[in-house]
Amino acid sequence: MTGWPGLDRFLHTDPRDVGCDEAMAALHVYADLVAADAGAGLRYPGVAAHLRACGPCGADFEGLLAAIGGPDLTD
Amino acid sequence: MMPEHPAAPGSAPEVRAADPESAAWLAALTSTGPPREQALARLHEMLVRVARGEARRRAGQLRITGPELDDLAHQAAADAMMAIIGKLAQFRGDSRFTTWAYKFVMFEISAKVGRHYWRYPDVSMDAGDWDRLPDRLGGGPADEAQGRDLLAALRTAVSERLTERQRRVFVAIVLNGVPLDALVAELGTSRGAIYKVLFDARRTLRAELAANGYLDHGTVRQT
Predict the structure, then answer these.
(1) Same domain, B110 and B176
(2) How far B79 CA sits from the closest chain A CA (Å)?
(3) Angstroms from B151 CA to nearest CA on chain A
(4) Structural domain tally of chain B?
(5) Residue B6 to residue A29, Cβ atoms within 8 A
(6) Are B87 and B136 within one domain?
(7) pLDDT digit of tens for each residue in chain B (223 aa)?
(8) Domain stop point among B117, B141, B162
(9) What DSSP letter does each residue of A5-71 carry, written as one string?
(10) Residue B11 falls within a domain, yes or no?
(11) Which domain holds residue B181?
(12) What is the pTM of this model?
């Protein structure tokens, strides 16, 4: 810890993070799995890691989930 | 960053035949005459509905309302429709067709939100506002003196350890609060490219601060 939690969080990088391109390529599959509560994070740990870290991809995911009637993750 | 192919054996579901509803969409959209026209009209109607919902959800970022917001939603739906028709052969049946199709609406809305930002930019691309960094990151330093030391070390690391492109992206996004998709629009690149630059910059900065005893080397968050 740094004594500065915000900086510590920002500088944290997850080596499982697959990046935007791969996460976006799988986003529809991931969203359907989340909507069906079918273990999306276990099947796609790298996508899950990316969506936690990338604000824009996270926003696309939340929007897609809202569009298909999945669980609300905004809270 | 580690690659994770959607169809990698053992880590993802295998490609399967489309569900009946998705198969019906594909059949109609690849047919000819009235059945195709009807499917296109129905799909467009659904895309507009989803685009409107998403535009409303992001209205705070757009700072527009009413007809202008509705117009943006219609443009996003139309552009998504073009992308869907152009990429129809790429749909592999590994999700519902509508989920796959709605994904393109999200992409179009995001791109438009990013471009829209520059209609009313409230920051400079180059001047870094270091004083606001604690606010930007949230959860500021617990100890003022320690925070000053850490901030100084971070400034030195940004100046001396980052490449010019990494520094430019860091200043724009982290110091000046430019949304990532807005920077993508400004620089004419991709979201993935900017994210990778920032990802590498974060890793470099952490390693530098850790080497100088300001924080630990931990790189994997246990969740």
Answers:
(1) no
(2) 16
(3) 10
(4) 2
(5) yes
(6) no
(7) 766 654 443 344 434 556 999 999 999 999 999 999 999 999 999 999 999 999 999 988 877 888 999 999 999 999 999 999 999 999 999 999 999 999 999 999 999 999 998 887 766 655 667 888 888 887 677 788 888 888 999 999 999 999 999 999 999 999 988 999 999 999 999 999 999 999 999 999 999 999 998 887 664 333 3
(8) B117
(9) HHHHHHH---TT---HHHHHHSHHHHHHHHHTTS-HHHH-HHHHHHHHH-HHHHHHHHHHHHHTT--
(10) no
(11) 130-211
(12) 0.88
